[in-house]
């Protein structure tokens, strides 16, 4: 019996996850069989077209009607819709994959994490960049001590789609719907990678900034207020003593999807950039400079699953790996990470950055 | 009625094309419907497993049994098996996509091109790198005159899988089975891109080299003679007066799949590298340096088909684009390029390089 | 009559400035004539050797003996020795070039700036990176509005000479002698460039960190306490509304002298790195990516003074340019920047970063 | 008694060598003392100004008048003037440094080499790129076997100052004065590095091309014929079995002084580019990618002579190193390389490339 997937959301993330599900059999034949069962949305006509294209068997306009029927629930809706359907699924014992950030605020995220703890089924917060082979390789190197004690983490995520003050308003720019702006959308990814690669954050100070306060609606007839940040920065101390600096912007002219991570340890350093995601730059102990490594070898993470060395993967492959790991955990009843606890931990850091910005003070996360 | 595809070959190229076929409906819904009908190979057990994984309905151990039944024939076998099945398919009026190089020698390639001309159905020589968005963008720039008159083409394709003298013998190292070595396997791609971007070659001198003359068989019990080149170089004059230099090697330590193209014109220049295939570097007229361009925008070639700007594609996407274009031509009865005439033109250049190497003389290709 | 230069300090910075003076006649024949008159230091023997090698006519072991005799005074001593000799020179009406940071603390810096204001002679704080041609070109672009309104400044300065916990103690690691560590030594450069390219800082929060608390003395017999920071970070808002992030470390394994500046504006962006100081990456309005520009053309800053395009300059050339500009101002009685007021402005920012770190609060610099 | 230098030529190369001489005392105090004695040229007025700026004690308008008086003779004139004055100096027992290529043709070069052999004093052909620290480091790595057996050498030298068909005629474009174009001016450097790093060439085929046949004179009143090549390419086999490809152009739009060298061996590979001359990229055995190495450490070639690690050098430093080595050899009576024999060896390769181009045949250099 294949796992019946119910998926709320059918736009950008819906396509990314549906594609991942469709590709599993050919490249991960050991993954559990999956049925794209029901696609959930409100606009019936658009939904029907999407279900057809994305290969779902049926549709539903209310998640309440189907959330208990499916074997796995994917919550890919706007951030303010993450909590209620996910909690309902978990209460019905249905494993849930939820897009990031886990919720629009840390209160909702905490309720979700509580529901996950009570449910005893795998949950996933969809921090897909953990599943870039180069990032997994970075994690292996750090775990193996190749970088020594970590002194510095530096992460930034740069986009430029809002630099035009006439770029239209969308739900992502509304604090009630999205929670935050660049902070939650982009910063959440960076913070998750920081936790994955370096560990928990002990204290931080944060700064949010909005460059444009109102924008035209998509139809251009009126303007609406922007209530989220356009950019954020943060400086942190990790529990292990490392320093961290963080930054994201939607105003970084010339950068489309530039998520860059740099780590310096006592023995080595590494660098990663999402726009060249097949590469990891590593300065190993004894080396005189960074090696530019193409992480596509047979024995690299997921390397043997795809193509010969040097035949590069794309952004979407991270979703295939993520779905493979999550669905395998669902089928086996195994632990999965990053789960809702991880999502909550990130959310608390996002909240601390906002609090620090408002109060103009450093925030202690360990108390 | 979906187009029934018969596919000879189920290893590396079989996976690449089967994956492309599987992905068309979700991302190219305007592509003709396709049925993965019959997979063809000699080893029944391996074939059955492959058909299952690659999603084929049935298998055949002799291409003769099925080549006339299918709507499209994909010939992905070793080079010396390109001619006979392809010609049989064409004689039955079946469109054929054949992997590159078109044949093991130019005589066989000429027979294939003749059969294609007689058949009046689309043919494809599978030079998939024409379908990298950055390459199509490069072609658009050149066609639009953005580079001015072309003065220089420089192409090299570097791999290193043979640098270890104990790397095992395979059919790719046998002149009877493969035709040539780095020249046909790698150089054919470079030469096709040169023709696509700059035009036909008028004269050239070539040089082939073999560093290791015999290698152990895969089981290690004996050695077999290597009868192809490990590396080649060529220097050419194009019909339009541009200079060209070409090189490929399987002994380029540290390079996995490094296919690099550089073009200088009177107004601008461009550079492309396959390991960073989402990027094109372009020096436009009036610019002070090369722009590093991420060719992933909505209006870039195939850009709107996939993901938002900056969400990079992989190597395999070239096959999706190639299959989309070829199958659309099949469905519509349109012209398709690169076809068997293009494959023959490349083959004649490969032959001229070999001839020049043997005779120590420049070869005129226009006579 | 050549300008007689008195120079306090004959090690790293002494060599850099003496070399600059020596090179002026051949490449800047319009510079005022200069006599390397007196070299000042305490160790008579070392001083004599240095004066010989650096081309000084005589030596002095007490700056008091000569500071009023010379036409220009160069103060290249440790930071805690910047104030007294510089003020004495200024009180004697002698123009002063002082190495950066201007002083060990902002109180001393303020006294120096006051003395400069009272003296009515040119002063220089030796922020030599303003004199990299690529930085001057960046400034020209920004002044001309090519980047539009500036939204982001990002600066970091990475070195790794302290990552080994056994690296020996030196005066640079003592708060009384140096004032601060990475903050004043490296951060001062970044902050000066931020002021030069973007403008004044309105508020900031800062963070200092020390990884190693004591180190062996150079002779290895004992250990001494490290009382300065090994690394700092800061996040700031500029008076014009731009966001800024700053970082420096002496623990960034694999980085020798990696001073990187990135700026994003509403119309364009730019990037600069000191280890490739001949290059500026610029994303102009209408461009699809960053141009990698070699700033060595005839009409680039100082371009016509040296070699043909593409014949790159080195780190030391920044000193030649700096000395040319400063000495020309001295000879002409012109204004010079960056002067002691600029040095004080930077010092106040350094102090604000320390204050913010101590108090865990954002600091307002405009009040 | 300082060595009295007589220098023929005071433009680009005159400045480069005069600067080198001027800088020796401060950075290479162990170099022999040198007196910039006499500067030689035909235009008295320009010569006097140059002597003043370059620091020469006196001038001469006929080299015959002074060539026997000086201790060292620098021949920096046009290529067709290399032979006669150099031979005269050697016949007088005066050591000679001559700019590259050694002569306008191989017959003249052979006479010069004969004179050098007869004179028993050091000679230098001024292939200054041997004295880039990164190139010397590359040589050390190869000599130490770090790259294993060399399989491939690839060198190209790209400039673009002639791509405009209205760029003015100069002596460099006249075969009688210059010998050849891009081949001798740029290719000579590449070929010298190939010999330095890999060894002698056994056979080659070459190709020359001219894109523009006549150009306006500098005053613009008339046009003059261009009689040299605008670009060349060559493919070669080294005596040790390595393959080599060579290319240079003055029509490579966007490239100012881009001299790039790539070498692949059985154990490792390396890359060097002149516009980033402080860096060497090396793929060592066991590494997963190229290390980007900043060759500025204390124990790198000439590293301890200049600045701390990461404080980069420029193009002109190659001349300082070259002059240091040559003058030390003169003072000590030691051997020096590259000498006139090396210059002749390069000249013979240049001639072989021309011969191959004319005859359309491969040329054997060992017979």
UniProtKB/TrEMBL annotation, chains A, B, C, D:
Domain GFO/IDH/MocA-like oxidoreductase: 135-271
The keyword Oxidoreductase appears for this protein: yes
PANTHER family for the chain: BCDNA.GH03377
Family matches, as InterPro entries: Gfo/Idh/MocA-like_OxRdtase_N (IPR000683), Gfo/Idh/MocA_oxidrdct_glycsds (IPR050463), GFO_IDH_MocA-like_dom (IPR055170), NAD(P)-bd_dom_sf (IPR036291)
Listed name of the protein: Gfo/Idh/MocA family oxidoreductase
Any single Pfam family the record assigns to this protein: GFO_IDH_MocA_C3
Superkingdom, taxonomy of origin: Archaea
Keywords linked to the UniProt accession: Oxidoreductase
GO MF annotations in UniProt: nucleotide binding; oxidoreductase activity
Gfo/Idh/MocA-like oxidoreductase N-terminal domain boundaries: 4-121
Organism: Halapricum salinum
């Amino acid at each position: 019996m294949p796992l019946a997937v119910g998926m709320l959301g059918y736009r950008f993330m819906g396509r990314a996850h549906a594609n991942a599900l469709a590709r599993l059999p050919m490249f991960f034949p050991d993954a559990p069989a999956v049925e794209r069962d029901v696609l959930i949305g409100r606009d019936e006509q658009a939904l029907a077209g999407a279900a057809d294209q994305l290969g779902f068997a049926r549709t539903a306009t209310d998640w309440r009607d189907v959330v208990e029927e499916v074997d796995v629930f994917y919550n890919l809706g706007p951030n303010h819709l993450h909590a209620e359907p996910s909690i309902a699924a978990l209460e019905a014992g249905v494993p849930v994959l939820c897009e990031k950030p886990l919720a629009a605020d840390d209160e909702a995220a905490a309720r979700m994490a509580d529901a996950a703890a009570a449910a005893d089924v795998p949950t996933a917060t969809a921090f897909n960049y953990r599943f870039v082979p180069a990032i997994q390789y970075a994690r292996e190197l750090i775990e193996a001590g190749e970088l020594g004690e970590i002194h510095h983490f530096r992460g930034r995520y740069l986009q430029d789609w809002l630099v035009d003050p006439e770029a239209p308003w969308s739900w992502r720019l509304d604090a009630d719907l999205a929670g935050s702006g660049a902070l939650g959308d982009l910063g959440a990814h960076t913070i998750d990678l920081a936790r994955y690669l370096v560990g928990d954050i002990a204290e931080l100070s944060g700064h949010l900034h909005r460059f444009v306060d109102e924008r035209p609606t998509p139809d251009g007839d009126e303007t609406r207020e922007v209530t989220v940040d356009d950019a954020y920065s943060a400086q942190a101390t990790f529990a292990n003593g490392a320093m961290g600096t963080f930054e994201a912007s939607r105003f970084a002219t010339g950068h489309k999807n530039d998520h860059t991570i740099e780590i310096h340890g006592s023995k080595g350093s590494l660098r990663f950039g999402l726009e060249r995601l097949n590469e990891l730059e590593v300065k190993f102990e004894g080396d005189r400079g960074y090696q530019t490594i193409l992480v596509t070898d047979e024995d690299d993470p997921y390397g043997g699953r795809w193509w010969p060395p040097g035949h590069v993967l794309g952004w979407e492959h991270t979703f295939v790996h993520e779905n493979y790991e999550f669905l395998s955990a669902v089928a086996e009843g195994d632990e999965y990470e990053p789960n809702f606890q991880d999502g909550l931990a990130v959310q608390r850091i996002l909240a601390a950055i906002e609090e620090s910005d408002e109060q103009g003070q450093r925030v202690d996360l360990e108390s």
